[in-house]
Amino acid sequence: MKQDIVEQARARLATLAQLRTTVLPAYLAPIPCNRTLQIWFDQAGIPRLKANAAAKRGGGPCFWSVSHVEKFFRSRVLPGRLTVQPIASAKGSSR
């Protein structure tokens, strides 16, 4: 029973590095640079949190909402990650 709970647990917040290794490979290949991802997420209004928002400088790593990131890519990426299929040569066809 405890194992079922652990398997159903999902991350709510993740850094860009964590998103690049866990969530983004399911939607993109190759994965864009961190700056591009940050711009996309800011334009989409994806919530982000700082570890210490009251800090005068920095405030630690920035965490993004995983559910919002997944929703963002589901709404903008074609399902099934299309792969390139080789085209059969026209020599064998009689059309």
Overview of the structural elements:
With 95 residues, this protein is of the alpha+beta class. It has four helices and three strands. Strands 1-3-2 form a three-stranded antiparallel β-sheet.
How would you spell out the order of helices and strands?
HEHHEEH
Radius of gyration, taken over Cα atoms and rounded to an integer in Å: 20 Å
Distance between the termini: 61 Å
Q: How many beta strands in the DSSP annotation? A: 3
Helical segment count = 4
What's the rounded overall pLDDT mean?
A: 76
Task: Flag low-confidence runs.
Answer: 1-9
Structural class: alpha+beta
Shape descriptor: elongated
Profile the largest sheet.
3 strands, antiparallel
Helical content (DSSP H or I, runs of 4+): 25-40%
Oligomer: single chain
Portion of residues in beta strands equals 5-15%
| Strand ordering within the main sheet | 1-3-2
